[in-house]
Amino acid sequence: MRKIIVFLFVLPLLGAAQNNSGEIHGDFDLSLQTYKEDKSIGALSVDEIMLNNAYLNILYTKGNFTVGVRYESYLNALKDFDPRYNGNGIPYRFAQYNKDGLDITAGSFYEQFGSGLILRSYEEKTLGIDNAMDGVRLRYRPLKGVNLKTFIGKERKFFEYSRGIVRGADAEININDALNLDLNTKTIIGGSVVSRFQNSTNPNFNIPENVAAFAGRMNIISGGLNWYSEYAYKINDPIGSLTENNYASGNAITSNLTYSQRGIGISLEAHRVDNMVFRADRDAVGKDLLLNYIPAISKQHAYTLISLYPYATQPSGEAGFQVDIFYKIKKGDWLGGKYGTKIDVNFSRINALNGGPSYLSDDINHEPLLVSLKGEELYYKDFNIEINRKINKKVRLAAVLAKQSYNKDVVQQQTGYGIIESDIAVLEVIYKIKRGHSIRVEIQKLKTEQDDGDWSMGLAEYTISPHWFFSVQDLYNWGNKNLDKQLHYFNANIGYIKGANRFTIGYGKKREGIFCVGGVCKTVPSSNGLTLSISSSF
């Protein structure tokens, strides 16, 4: 039956290609890696010698009608992906039609209500996350400034779907547009509800079959000021319950205030989260079938050593805040230089919830675990300063200093480590040799007395625009107290870009650790081998 449905989705694309009507677009992505045993870093080989992930998206649009499919292949999945991504198939396909303000989607779709506190259906390939919904979604604009959404479906679980049925509705009103108000201050309000239905066959416990979450939000924009706040409440959920018949509620609040004008920007953000693990299946674990998303409250770093200890948001319980200040010193004096100087100062801190027992994740995958916490317990703290300056037409500099505190016992649930205190320094230099030729050099150092000790990293990248780039990198754990673990993780890459096609081949070692995007993380095993990446779009 599923093959017949997929065929019905693909057939219009083939016909469109023959008739040359409408537009066809898409993209292709292939990642291959070999795995060689390396006992020094704990890397294991694989029976298949080479593993792969591949994706092909095809999108056909004509007028108000759109149809799309995605073919996926895991033979077998790369080792940093869940092995349940296995085999080939078309798990994502949809048809969409828009007429007179009504947008109808049947099949697969992604959706988010507000900031995602009670619903965020999205894809993040680097984390192995794809929690697309499969069902029907309606979007409608009955009046100017009024946006309505509703859907019903099941969430994707690899090549299958959740047992729970998910339903949701969202309304957002731009008061200025709806009332035709010509004001300098714009006000937008919204509200959402999401529920999960799942049969209960357990005769011993009175498990709720319907679980609901509600959220309300407000956004006020006035000149350079922007304030956004959202509150969510979840009721009657067996996930994270204290006792068998006393099901826990949960709540979350997030608020963000930003101010910006030419040359300066200030952002203040805070949130509090308590028992907000919300899933499409009450029995799911890890990253499986998560319905919601708690926005990260710490800065997402790009440099290797600053992100060596990334923070994983704890939706079971945390409170934190972040302050970010951006300032551009005007050009012309010794501070600003000839081209001006950009300074970014950032500070974030996340703690346990105050008072009494609370819920924590037993690993970075957010599996609920009941533990007793003190409200003053620190989870994560990060203070960093980044300076960017163009010296002349050929040279650009970027420098970062950071001081971090990372509670590994909590974030990774690896007891005995405590809080890891680290100091990090980064220097990046970009030198334009001549037109189309440039070299980029990074020098990084992390200093700590805990965990694996001190690290250094050096990187050199040569670019011949617009086609070629070459890079070498060495990550060295020279401060490890275990002399056998004072290892080099060397990597080399060559890339070629032509139009919409990109080819990258590399070889080297990867350290075991965690990788995070937006506060959501996955475990990355150590590896030693060859990598090949090909991407294309049309």
Range of strand content = over 45%
Mean pLDDT: 90
Residue stretches low in confidence (pLDDT < 50, at least 5 long) are: 356-374
Coarse structural class: mainly beta
Radius of gyration: 25 Å
- Major beta sheet, specifics? 24 strands, antiparallel, barrel
Apparent shape: globular
Note the total helix count: 3
Distance separating the two termini: 30 Å
**What helical percentage do the residues reach?**
under 10%
Please report the total strand number as a whole number: 33
Walk me through what this model shows:
With 538 residues, the protein is mainly beta. 5% of the residues lie in helices and 57% in strands. The protein contains three helices and 33 strands. The strands form five sheets. The chain has a 24-stranded antiparallel barrel. Strands 6-7 form a two-stranded antiparallel sheet. Strands 8-9 form a two-stranded antiparallel ribbon. The longest helix is centred in the first third of the chain and has 18 residues, at 2-19. The radius of gyration is 25 Å and the shape is globular. The two termini are 30 Å apart. The model is unreliable at 356-374 (pLDDT under 50).
